[in-house]
Give the backbone structure.
Amino acid sequence: MPISLAIFLAFVASTLGITYWASRHSRGMSAYFAAGRTITAWQNGFAVAGDFMSAASFLGIVGLIAVQGFDGFLYAVGGFVAFVTILLLIAEPLRNSGKYTLGDVLAYRLRPRPVRAMAAISTLATILFYMIAQMVGAGALVTLLLSGSGISYNLAVTGVGALMVIYVVFGGMLATTWVQIVKAVLLSACTLILAVLVLSYFHFHLGDFFAAASQVAYHEKGQPVVRDFLVPGLRYKPPYGPLDLISLGFAFIFGTAGLPHVLGKFYTVPDAHNRAQKCGLGDGPDW
Amino acid sequence: MGRQLLPRTPKERLHSRLRISRLCTIGEHFNLTMKPVEREHQRPDWERVAASAALKDLLAVKRLFIVPAFLFFFAYFFGLLLLTAYAPKLISVRAAGIVTLGYLLALSQFVVGWIIAWLYLRAATRFDRLSRDLVAAGENKT
């Protein structure tokens, strides 16, 4: 059995194991939707980080920086600043409300029916587009990991989707939180290892590293070109580049604070101090 | 039913702010007498709390930290984007060896963000203490 398949199966098995454990330990509504509000700050910090560090960030941002240099790096920065909005404006009121969903929070102050309908619609719309991107990424990744085993792209997407549904439905918030913690630790460790390996390639001289990034040679439309990856302009070109950038900034600063799966994590901690710590930790990596 | 769920008076708004269950508010509206006994004793005098200068102080203290902190960070991040968009020559200046000004600014976002998170952590501890004091003061008056 190839090592990639073994690692993949081990991760699937541990995910299902966590789900089984969580389903036996969570009783009642608070336990199911908010993990009984027993998650500690550090645990939830890793969980929020895990929520945010999806395949899109781990592979996507690395890819963006690799092909678009500085412009791609702005994505990494945007993913980070998003958490400052959440920390300053969103996290505390959400937790103080003592509710389970954004709909609950809004319905408390406003007329419940239309507000709940709107919250449900916006949640589903956000999740739908978010999920499509995630599933495409996950499917492509699994197909690549298990190449040679005869698993098609469609089967990979269906399988990953089914696995997600199983662990959320049966494990509730407790399982999702722990799965995200495992994921965050794994991704952080991998990123750290990769960073050290890249630096060791440059004999741990940051100057050499940036010098190499300032003149990257590759082929574009069949022509060899040398580009400076430390200056802007590889992605955001006139005439619409500037507007594109501003739109990206707004999407990050206000959009991330509306991601349902990130918001959901803020109902799981006991008090404000914990919440702030968690948010601080969630800042670490990006997206 | 819908109308009563709307927090209209300052008292009701404070209820929601201070995490008292909605049932309590509805119960009061219909003048229900079956409230839990211990709640009778522990329930702070919300009208007094709502009218108190201490509450206004607490809200002002929170605003005084959160609004400038958010505006500063918003401006800091958007400054980078606007420079990238409209002054690409400026941020392409080599500021430290080969590294450009843009890259330094982008990296500094992480530092500034962490500093704000740390400051918020300290401020939030103070907010929590103030609101606990406030609720405790309300309870003593009943």
